Amino acid sequence: MDWKKWYAKRGGGFVLKRGLHLLQRYGLTPGLAQRRIEESVRLMQRYGCAPSYPTPGQVVDRYPRFIQKLQSLGAEICVHSYHHIDLRTCPLETALDELDAALKAFERHGIQSSGFRCPYLSWRPELLAALPPQWFEYSSNQAVSLAPFLPTISEQDSGVFNTINQFYAPASADTMMSIPYRLENLIEIPLFVPDDLQLQDGLKFSQEQIAQFWVETLQRTHRSGELFTLLTHPELADQFAPALENLLQSVSNLTPKVWLARLCDISAWWREKDGFSAQITAAPQGNITISFQASPRAAVLIRGIPTIHARPWYGPDHLLESRSLTLPASIEKRPWLGVHPDFSPEALRWLHERGFITENSLDPNAYVYYLAPQASVTAPELESIAAEIEASGSPLIRFSLWPDQARSAFAVTGDLDALSLMDYAARLVS
């Protein structure tokens, strides 16, 4: 380890405060951490929720029976490098060796894994591009900052908050929605920050303030149909148990329902959703029939289109109760997206991931929304297009983002970086 670089990234104040917190929250042996993690898993079980725990291969090698027990309880164990090191700044070959060693540790101990998270969310495009396609199905490294929605707090430790934030390098929730997307051969599953350490140790939130902020975030993502990936640290699991239980109770009270899922479940659904399509057939008399090819878990949403085969769902959207729909010849514009053949294929794939139905056409006047020729479209531009369509109020047919008629999704994830003070000491010499 390059101690000078390590210290420069953190600063003396952060190192001292973090060290004191670790002394308070961990024991010399793993028993304390193991008890609170297992209690947290069992708490989530009561609400039909199971967490995803990115875990270094070194921790798996040290505590294989405990990690196996967590997996048997329904928790997902994800790869988190072998050593807990910054994969953004080390040589690419070293980063790949770390992930390879972690996969081998998982295999040695019978731990199943389909995804990974870099320590400190330290991903980089070159690393994702270099990953062998058989290693992982998903990545969860893209942080989305909820800072625009944070209340003003007079007493805070900006040093702790900002030090953690610089590692995470989040996008802003103002410009990026928390919705999975394809990145290289992977499904990228975003997560929200500030995490629990930033809220408690950085912003000095009380337990009541944290509970309120989490519920407000849940309500916001339910309104927008997003994924709320709660990022926690198991060292605080016992302290935050009441806030987590309050949040899970709030999840169960929302209508339409929230899909409770592990990261591996979200990745699997996103790949399943990839196969959905709509076949559009125009009859000679002018009627248009649209048939939907999708799994039984899929929901088709319609708005602004009278039909007896739909029931109210959320806002203006209704759930179509069949797998086909015939539109009369009198319909003014086709209620899906018309796309010029020269529109960006990458952007088109992104729109399909968001559930939009598209049709190649040279007639911009035949559709409620038309996408003109454009060789490339930036992510913010795509978000703007999706928001404009959503806010337009025009008739629309599309696939729902989430399975089983859920409005939004919720996942709990927490990095099992260490289970004892000795584990932390080992990290410093790795």
Structure commentary:
The protein has 430 residues and is an alpha/beta fold. It has two domains: 274 residues, TIM Barrel; 124 residues, no CATH class. Helices cover 39% and strands 21% of the residues. The protein has 14 helices and 22 strands. Strands 3-4-8-7 form a four-stranded mixed sheet, with helices on one face. α6 links the parallel β3 and β4. α7 runs antiparallel to α8 and α9 packs parallel to α10. The protein starts with a helix and ends with a helix. 41% of the residues are buried. The mean pLDDT is 91. Pfam families: Polysacc_deac_1. It comes from Levilinea saccharolytica. GO terms for molecular function: hydrolase activity, acting on carbon-nitrogen (but not peptide) bonds. This is NodB homology domain-containing protein.
In short, what is this structure?
With 430 residues, this protein is α/β, with parallel strands linked by helices. It has helices at 3-25, 31-45, 57-62, 64-72, 92-108, 125-130, 158-168, 196-202, 207-224, 241-253, 263-273, 345-353, 379-392, 421-429; strands spanning 52-55, 76-79, 115-116, 138-139, 143-145, 171-172, 181-183, 186-188, 191-193, 227-232, 258-260, 277-282, 288-293, 300-303, 310-314, 317-320, 324-327, 334-339, 358-360, 367-371, 396-399, 408-414. It folds into 2 domains: 3-254 and 408-429, TIM Barrel, CATH 3.20.20; 276-399, no CATH class.
